Amino acid sequence: MTVFRTSMRNFFAHKGRMALSAIAVVLSVGFVCGTLVFSDTMTTTFDRLFAATAADVTVSPAELGSGGDQQFAEKETPTLPGTDLERVAAVKGVKAVNGDVTTVQATVADMDNDNLGSTTGAPTIVTNWGPEELKSVKITSGHEPRGPTEALIDADVAKKHHLKIGDGIHVIAEPGTFTTKLVGIATFQSTNPGATVVYLDTPTAQSKLFGKPDVYTQIMATTAPGLTHEEVKKAAIADLGKDYKIQTKAEVTEEGKDDVGSFLGIMKNAMLGFAGISFLVGIFLIFNTFSMLVGQRIREIGLLRAIGSSRSQINRSVLTEALILGVVGSALGAGAGIGIAILLMKLMGKAGMHLDTADLTVKWTTPAWGIVLGVIVTVLAAYIPARRAGKISPMAALRDSGTQTDGKAGVIRIVLGLILTAAGAAALFQMSRVEKASDGTPYMALGIVLTLVGFIVIGPLLASFVVKVISAGVLRIFGPVGRMAERNALRNPRRTGATASALMIGLALVASMSIVGSSMVASATEELDKSVGADFIIQSDMGGQAILPEAAEAIKKSPVLEHVTEYKALEATLTYPGGKVEKETNVTAATPTYADDLRVAVVAGDLKDAYAPDAMSVNEDIAEKYGVGVGDKVKADFTDGSTATLTIRAVTNADVTIDNGAKYMAITTAAKYVTADKMPRNVIMFGKAADGKADQAYAALKKDLKPFPQYKVYDQTDFKQSLKDQIGILLNIVNGLLALAIIVAILGVVNTLALSVVERTREIGLTRAIGMSRRQMRRMIRLESVVIALFGALLGLGLGMAWGTSTQQLLALEGLKVLDIPWPTIAIVFIGSALVGLLAALVPAWRAGRMNILNAIATD
Predict the structure, then answer these.
(1) If residue 500 lies in a helix (H) or strand (E), which one and from where to where?
(2) Does 31 score more than 70 pLDDT?
(3) Which terminus of the chain is less hemmed in, N or C, by CB atoms within 10 Å?
(4) What is the percentage of the chain residues whose pLDDT exceeds 70?
(5) How far is 845 from 299, CA to CA, in rounded Å?
(6) Which residues pair with 57 in a beta bridge?
(7) Cα–Cα distance measured from residue 504 to residue 498, given in angstroms and rounded to the nearest whole number
(8) What confidence tens digit (pLDDT) does each residue in 690-729 have?
(9) What pLDDT, in 10s, does the model give residues 82-104?
């Protein structure tokens, strides 16, 4: 109990200093718990949605496969004839049936032809209204659609686009575009997964979406009492045969969970990874706090040792303080995690996915794991300071307070740091020598970890040198005040190194990600300039929809285009000479002008010959793997067609990014073996303007595609900007998540300065007594903070540039061949670090300036 009482007394005696360390624990634990609560809530929400919307037994076309009709973006959605509705109704154990008519390949636009679809990648769903819909939505205004000119829309889309009952909307489907009037608004009872949902009456959905009367995409059956879903499924299989995909409610629900679960798993692991980084940064903050507190209590600890306290008791006393800090901070963090989860739900709402806080799921394991993790990290961070405290001898009570140093330990630290850094650099160098990117990944991971740990360990040695260099350029201009700030930063290199290392980690990741992102943009731009000869690229604005035949015809009829290239993707199983088989691979079917629009290097033959009848090309990796070359025959079994024998007329270079690994053939060849109703739609189209008419063609194409807002016309400038914007959004998300670690690092700088001011109370009083003004004192503290922040920035940016450059060299094997270092970003981060240092010093500097001179001099 004596150890505990001593720990409690010390903890509350330094409660202000402990508070900043506690904030680091709160933020880290809160982010972990918030991530877990958010992902659990998302899982619960979607589980309820799938369970509510799934029928007892669902019958779908056999070719639909897993994932619904989204996989048929390039071809017509499979349907069931109306007679199947009667056949399912006649199955033993079926109480009632309901036919579903749904497509995700339609586009919905307002009367100005502005797309009402999601901008986050969620689908646009146009479906028929039926009794099953009341399981997931309720009509909150108006009524259900009752005729060919009536539609009902979900409330979230109506609110976002300011739609009201009576407004008209266009529905653009494969049979053609039609206009309807909104007669009702429906609200999701659980969650809107971000989709745009429009409901039509059943006959209209059948005729307008599929151009056929009396067809369904699914048939949903309700089972009679007394029979299980599995029993009715078996009866349906017996009656209908195996030409259908028949699933129970549990199977449909599980399939939906799997589809969503993979996305949620990736997001959850990524967010937990960033939480782990913040924990790592927090370790430095807690380590510095306890190191400085131990240093300030050397005489006190010496007295305790003199009156009989053992080393283990002193050790336990410090660890108990850490335990209290960990428990308090983790408990608060677990509570904060719920708030963070709600904030994440609100952010998802801004993106279009509205989650109900009534579904908030807090499992008991979430706060338990958060608290356990927070306590373990806090105690581990305090372990070394606790050991140092235990080594303080009773004679320390007779000395002045001060941090003890161990010269031998310092030498060992320097040697170990150099070894780790050299080993990490060697791993990164070895990574650059591999021939396959997959072989280099272990070296990259090892190199990053070793160089990071090496820099952390060698931080004090680097501080002694780098701080002097920074000071020469930044602090010396401030005269004696600047020199004093430099000496303060160099007074305890171990402390300065640990404080800077916390900031170093976050900035290293920011720098490395910036280099990789910038290199991706530069590589894609160079590849586009080198490989794409077309003036225009036409594709879905979200990249998920194929080009409807009506839109494709509008593009092909443009009079100001020299030529238009069509591009389709077919699936086939290829049998090469010798019997080697490549199963279910993609074969690109294009018009012959694609050889002009894509400048692919050819190692054998001529790519234009690959568009001759019954001809094809392969890339050199395929040629080497299967031992084939120009003139060899390949048997192609098309998944949706018959069997062809194709002759290889060209072998293309595999060292490309665009269409890497593609196998080409002519659309006319594909049409011989795949019927028109099975032929995929164009995935993308290319256009070449007539000489001198590029601007005119650009405007004409945009005008021609005005009725199809789901497609965008890109010239090469547009396409490059689109790539840059996409990568920029990703980098912003990553940097936003890394901001958590940087905030914790800033708290570390604040805490170090605050404790340093307390540690130097008497020195500050003497300095003030001999003439230093309050303003000069505050400036000295601010300059000390700036130099520590700049030291951390230099380490972080240097390390990040090494990581980013090495990563780019590895990714060069996958096509990322251009190294582009974003110097403006690097400069902004460096200057921003100086501002961070100034902000971090505001409170400590104010406290130092306010210190009473006589009281400070009298301090022991």
Answers:
(1) helix 493-531
(2) yes
(3) N
(4) 93
(5) 27
(6) 221, 248
(7) 10
(8) 888 888 999 999 998 988 998 999 998 888 888 888 888 8
(9) 999 999 999 999 999 999 999 98
- 403, pLDDT greater than 50: no
Residue recorded with tokens 């599995």: 230
**Whole-number pLDDT of residue 331:** 92
* Residue 661, CA distances (Å) to 554, 624, 681 in order: 31, 12, 21
Supply the pLDDT for residue 626. 92
467's tokens: 């701080």
What is the rounded CA–CA span in Å between residue 327 and residue 637?
64
The rounded distance, in Å, linking the Cα atoms of 710 and 119 is 11
Looking up tokens 């001999």 gives 770
Phi, psi for residue 304 in degrees, rounded to 5: -60, -40
For the residues 574-588, what does the mean pLDDT come to? 90
Helix or strand or coil: residue 264? helix
Q: Is 445 helix (H, G, I), strand (E, B) or coil?
A: helix
Cα gap 530→815, rounded to integer Å: 13
Structure tokens, 527:
């590849």
Give the angle subtended at the CA of 547 by the CAs of 646 and 618, to the nearest 5°. Answer: 25
- How far apart are the C-alpha atoms of 125 and 118, rounded to whole Å? 11
As beta bridge partners, residue 349 has: none
Section 132-140 average pLDDT = 85
Place of tokens 């108990």: 320
Average pLDDT over residues 116-133: 84
**Considering only CA atoms, which of 242, 255, 240 is closest in space to residue 81?**
240
Output the six-digit token pair for 616. Answer: 């094809």
* Strand ranges inside 294-429, DSSP E: none
Would you say 54 and 229 are in contact if contact means Cβ atoms under 8 Å apart? no
Q: Token pair for residue 280?
A: 């790592």
**Residues 751-808: pLDDT tens digits?**
788 777 777 778 888 888 888 888 888 898 899 899 999 999 999 999 999 999 999 9
Question: With the C-alpha atoms ordered 483, 487, 490, 496, is the resulting torsion angle positive or negative?
Answer: negative
Cβ 680 vs Cβ 568: under 8 Å? yes
The tens digit of pLDDT for each residue in 310-335 reads 888 888 888 888 888 889 999 999 99
How much is the CA Rg of the chain, to the nearest whole Å?
34
- In 3-state terms the chain splits into helix, strand, coil percentages (rounded to 5) of 60, 15, 25
Share of the chain above pLDDT 90, in %: 31
Task: Compute the distance between CA of residue 410 and CA of residue 132 in angstroms, rounded to an integer.
Answer: 72
C-alpha triplet 269, 271, 274: angle, nearest 5°: 110
Nearest CA among 219, 124, 840, 246 for reference residue 540: 124
Whether the Cβ atoms of residue 787 and residue 468 lie closer than 8 Å to each other? no
The structural domains of the chain, with segments of one domain joined by +, span 1-55+250-404, 56-249, 409-457, 458-533+716-860, 546-709
When pLDDT is cut at 50, 70 and 90, the band that residue 66 belongs to is very low
- The residues that bridge with 570 in the sheet, in sequence order, are 587
How many separate helices (H) and strands (E) can be counted in the chain? 26, 24
Q: What is the DSSP letter of 147?
A: S
Q: Which residues pair with 170 in a beta bridge?
A: 109, 179
- Cα dihedral sign, 238-239-240-245: negative
- Quick count: other Cβ atoms within 10 Å of Cβ 1? 5
What is the bridge-based pairing of β-strands 150-154 and 176-188? Answer: parallel
Look-up of token digits 């309700």: 222
Q: 543-554, pLDDT tens digit by residue?
A: 567 888 889 999
| Most confident by average pLDDT, 61-75, 373-387, 755-769 | 373-387
When pLDDT is averaged across residues 603-624 and rounded to a whole number, the result is 92
The dihedral over CA atoms of 607, 610, 611, 612, expressed in degrees to the nearest 10, equals 130
The closest alpha carbon to 667, from 549, 586, 566, belongs to 566
- Is the pTM above the cut of 0.90? no
Query: In Å, how far are 125, 288, 451, 858 from 409, measured between CA atoms?
Result: 67, 17, 20, 34
Q: Which residues neighbour 254 within 8 Å (Cβ) at sequence distance 6 or greater? A: none
Can you tell me the mean pLDDT for 597-602? 86
